[in-house]
Amino acid sequence: MPTRNRFLRVVNSFGGNILQASKKQYFWFIAVLLAGTFTMSISQSSLSTAYPTLMSYFHLPAATIQWLMTGFMLVMCVMMPISPWLLKNIPFKLLFISVLAIFDLGTLIILIAPNFGLMLIGRVLEAIAVGILFPAYQSVMLTITPEAQRGSVMGIAGLVMGSALAVGPIISGIVLGFTTWRVLFVVFLVVISLVLVLSFFTVQSVMALERSRVDLLSVICSLGVIGVLYVVNQIGQSGHWQFNIGLLTMSLLALLIFVIRQFKLAQPLLELRVLKTFNYDLAVLLTAISYLSLIVVTVLFPLYYQEVLGISPLLSGLALVPGAVVLSVFNPITGRLADRFGFRRMMVIGMTLISVG
């Protein structure tokens, strides 16, 4: 009991005053939050330019190397439903610092990794941190922003996450053009370590806590997402079809239990009742399509440029610059236009441009 009380005192010390900050404190809070999120988002896509280099370094095929990104996204997807519970039960400052520390540890493991297996473990730790931070980051941004300005703020949020996905392969290409792939993770380690130090002095806990117990069965069943995405990833590859069918069946059953359980729990791990709102479902679907388009481009184009056209990693990264610039320019502008003309018009224009592209 004394140990538990000491732990609670440590946790509460990270509480801070909710939304009681000067403009200067507010600025640094947002700046540090965006810097951490932007860097982690870059790490999500940065390895796509490095695929050929890593294939040569580890003497492995692209189908194996791609798990550094596919595995990253699988773990990230599983952690995202847990993020809202963590946000409600752990002061945001403590949560943010912990996430940065986990990401730093994963990056350090990648730096010293003598083989592909250990590097993959480091990527898993990075994915855990990113999966927790991304939903929490958006919730915090919306919480501290007046409703009339939320379009602009979500434009900034989109700028941080979207442009970072596009910038990742560019930064990777530039680094690989002058040095080794490990230097890329040195950059991540230095930036996140700096953000970690600054967060002790700038980040505040801006979310009201609602203590609750995590439903372990829901957490276990959410792992079905990994099974489904793994089987989808294996489509088109020969062999192991019986195992894949079995895994897919078990994963779908686990997800079915997860969904049913969320509707029965008073405090669900993931609030699925919002899916009863058609406009919300439509927004989620269109967002998924836009992110799918972005991620496919950032993964396939560097491989195409280097493996098919035979150009250098530097040039393959620089070839993505025009798209990244346009994305970065239009994200905040679109947010302000959405505040003025409505989200529907912006969504129609955006999806039309994606379809034409």
From TrEMBL:
The chain crosses the membrane at residues 26-47, 67-87, 94-114, 120-144, 156-178, 184-203, 215-235, 241-261, 282-305, 311-330. The lineage of its organism: Bacteria, Bacillati, Bacillota, Bacilli, Lactobacillales. PROSITE patterns: MFS. It comes from Lapidilactobacillus concavus DSM 17758. InterPro entries: MFS, MFS_dom, MFS_trans_sf. This is Putative multidrug transport protein (Putative). It is a multi-pass membrane protein. Keywords: Membrane, Transmembrane, Transmembrane helix, Transport. The keyword Transmembrane helix applies. Pfam families: MFS_1. The keyword Aminoacyl-tRNA synthetase does not apply.
